[in-house]
UniProtKB/TrEMBL annotation, chains A, B:
The organism's place on the tree of life at top rank: Bacteria
Pfam families, sorted: FAD-oxidase_C (PF02913), FAD_binding_4 (PF01565)
Gene3D superfamilies listed in its UniProt record: 3.30.465.10, 3.30.70.2740, Vanillyl-alcohol Oxidase, Chain A, domain 4
GO MF terms, alphabetically ordered: (S)-2-hydroxy-acid oxidase activity; FAD binding
Membrane-crossing segments per the record: none
Start and end residues of each FAD-binding PCMH-type domain: 37-216
Keyword Oxidoreductase attributed: yes
GO cellular component annotations of the record: glycolate oxidase complex
Similarity-based family: Belongs to the FAD-binding oxidoreductase/transferase type 4 family.
Keyword Flavoprotein among record annotations: yes
Known cofactor(s): FAD
Gene source species: Priestia koreensis
Protein name as annotated: FAD-binding protein
Alphabetical keyword list: FAD, Flavoprotein, Oxidoreductase
């Protein structure tokens, strides 16, 4: 509950038009893209600039009001669900690309900029921002930074973390700090830039970012390798890399995913094979052609039943788009879709795919698996129905076992989605008590009153969730 | 002072042969590569394994004994000088390369491994670890990680931070934690891996690391571009990159540095020009040849008086070796050599070089400038003599003004050397009071008794230095 005094103070900061607490508005921001999580915020606030954010955080600190910074809410870990109430902070007034610097190869922008909009703006200047989360058409850069988003080009180019070189941050006490800059190198003290990347809104609010850009690759080519044996597909992944070729993209889709994606996208994907690899290479033409030819040979040597090079940019784009639509396509199957991102060392992909299949059978649940195989980052996805409590229980048991298996194989509970509230119960599997204690010490030192996105990463629920169906 | 009880306990942990407190041994570890800093430790300890480190840290925490982890002491920020006494920790028993994993492209090793030894071991398998600090022949990986070391290949490939994907760390309370793994992606909580990279031994002790490797580039070529105008050389740097070519290496040396390096290396470097750029590109042959040709054209268009492609691997290696020897060569000029690493956005290199020259003139000190121009990371270097207090005072004023200028140009006080004790007084220029407070909060949360390398990054001297000449 927000007191009348706090409400008036916040309205005084941002103006009446930027503070909403009608039931309708609150309902809109009571959930994000994560199934099974919903909780009403007390209000929704839209700061106009950094100073507003600072003033808001001072008030929230003083009065212990939770603040949940939110981009487009596309995360899949309940990272922006206001599970302990409080105020959802939106960035609709902070959506400017401030500068594209062609000499230093940087873009400086506000957190509310849509990822794809920035990518298109820099590509118009022949520059390239590689991280391309599947949600990039609607996700914001602020959200990408807070979640350290991955994407389809991570194998060769890395993730969001590898491109953020400077931040303006408002700390919970209202202090405004700047980290890094247009600098290739900076070792002036601890790496606060990377500490905030992936911190899921639990340490402060990012109000500006400077991103590193690279020259646009000259060309790219796409191939689709088909397999009647999942293990052969998985083996191809490590064979390609062990042969010292790092493709831009190395995606895996199993048969159940293929069937659903083809039904959604209708681009002629094969549905009669057990698995496909979607592989892309970019760079100078000669190198791309040579690599693609070698990749095709390696896939054949690992028993691909067919290897097809996309014959046009349109065809390649259709394949990529189909892959990006996997979640949307799977979401059509059942009322609820639970998508995970257990991640293992690349060499363990075959074992992990097999384990997922065994676990699905054991708990009698349907799990479709696709993902960034080159990164060892799989997305086992379960179409289910939260109203069927008995099935949901089995689904949750299956995913718990999947997380355990990925840890056993030297992996992690999340490769790119974040912990949020959804995976908080599993964090100890990866970090141990000591690792969690170290992270909690950081949280405590930045946010002693636990106002920043409380309940995420560590804490257990204190407020009962409103369970809804999608 | 270490009490007899603590001494006996520590000897009990590591064995008498691994605990040294003779005056001779203490003297050896009373300084590092940084001029003007010396302070006697109370003892020197050599743990045999992680468990020893944990036991030592528990004792030191309990009894508030400072611990200074030290690799080869090649840092240039007084980062391993035991300025508040206590115990210097060596890693001579932790020098194993534990595994080179050719499927996941990783190397796992102990902190005491010499950088070059690891690089040669992975290159023997066709793999590549890009960070190549000039000290790599003697520096250790543990030291590289604690300082987030750069090198000559940073422009294209990044720095140590970009290659460390997993750590085993002993916290000051003795807890052993593991971060990351053989994983391309991991977002399970805060990025402790990167928090520890560059933390200068102030948060805990790194006892094992997993590093990412990449395929060895197929070939490389080297060119030397000569200029009679420093600004033209600096302008060439941004022109090359604005033309969307990212060379592996883009080094700058001014005339005073050239003269000294040639006198040292005797490889026929030109000494009658105002500046040179040493530029390398690596990758597939066609791409390298094309890039090198384009770079040569761009340098000429920016008024290089000569552009020469190294005609053999031996010649290229001689040029690189000469560049790496710059500090050693400059150190022959005067009893004391102060080498700094002010860093600016690449576009500001010309202004920064000019400013350094103006400042040197203003304070009547000799400053030779060289460095990683592509990274905006310059090494203004002053040959001086600490016994000449009047000159040293002018040198310190000059460097203070250089740091201020680099901040004014959007830069930082250190690009790759770290803060240590040497640059602690300047940290606020970059971070502001609020940024320092945020970092101190982290330090306090990990190390409440301030046992880990106290006096570094933040604090002021509490113990008087013993000033010595080199």
């Amino acid at each position: 509950m927000i007191s009348e005094h706090v409400r008036a103070t916040l309205i005084n900061i941002v103006g009446l038009e930027n503070y909403e607490d009608s039931p309708a508005e609150r309902l809109v921001y009571s959930y994000d893209a994560t199934p099974q999580f919903q909780s009403m915020p007390d209000a929704v606030i839209s700061p106009r600039h950094t100073k507003d954010v600072s003033d808001i955080l001072k008030i929230c600190s003083e009065h212990r009001v939770p603040i949940v910074p939110r981009g487009s809410g596309t995360n899949l870990c309940a990272g922006t669900c206001p599970t302990q109430g409080g105020i959802v902070m939106l960035f609709k007034h902070m959506q400017q690309i401030l500068e594209i610097d062609e000499e230093n190869l940087t873009v400086t922008l506000q957190p509310g900029v849509i990822t794809l909009e920035m990518i298109e703006a820099v590509e118009a200047k022949g520059l390239f921002y590689p991280p391309d989360p599947s949600s990039m058409k609607i996700s914001t850069i602020g959200g990408n930074i807070n979640e350290n988003s991955g994407g389809l080009r991570g194998l060769k180019y890395g993730v969001t973390r590898d491109y953020v070189i400077g931040l303006e941050i408002v700390l919970p006490n209202g202090d405004i700090i700047r980290t890094g800059g247009k600098l290739a190198k900076d070792v002036a003290g601890y790496d606060l830039t990377r500490l905030f990347i992936g911190s899921e809104g639990t340490l402060g609010v990012i109000t500006e970012a400077t991103l590193k850009l690279i020259p646009m690759p000259e060309t790219k080519k796409t191939i689709l390798a088909l397999y009647q044996d999942i293990e052969a597909a998985a083996k191809s992944v490590s064979t390609i890399i062990a042969n010292k070729i790092i493709p831009t993209t190395l995606e895996f889709l199993d048969q159940p995913t293929l069937v659903v994606v083809e039904d959604f996208a209708r681009i002629g994907l094969p549905t009669n094979v057990k698995a496909v690899l979607l592989i892309e290479q970019d760079g100078p033409l000669q190198v791309v052609e040579r690599d693609i030819q070698k990749i095709a040979e390696l896939c054949k040597s690992e028993h691909a039943v067919s290897v097809e090079v996309a014959q046009s940019d349109e065809h390649a784009e259709a394949l990529r788009t189909a892959r990006r639509s996997a979640l949307s396509a799977l979401a059509r199957l059942k009322p609820t879709t639970i998508l995970e991102d257990a991640t293992v060392p690349r060499s363990e992909i075959a074992k992990m795919v097999q384990a997922i299949s065994d676990i699905a059978e054991k708990y009698d649940v349907k799990i479709c698996t696709f993902g960034h195989a080159g990164d060892g980052n799989l997305h086992p996805t379960c179409p289910t129905d939260v109203r069927d409590q008995e099935e949901i229980h089995r689904v949750e048991q299956a995913f718990a076992e999947i997380f355990e298996k990925s840890i056993e194989l030297g992996g992690t509970i999340t490769g790119e989605h974040g912990v949020g509230e959804m995976k908080a119960p599993y964090l100890e599997l990866k970090l141990g008590k000591e690792g969690i204690a170290a992270m909690q010490a950081i949280k405590q030192s930045f946010d002693p009153y636990n106002i920043m996105n409380p309940g995420k990463i560590f804490a257990k629920n204190e407020r009962k969730r409103v369970v809804v169906t999608s």
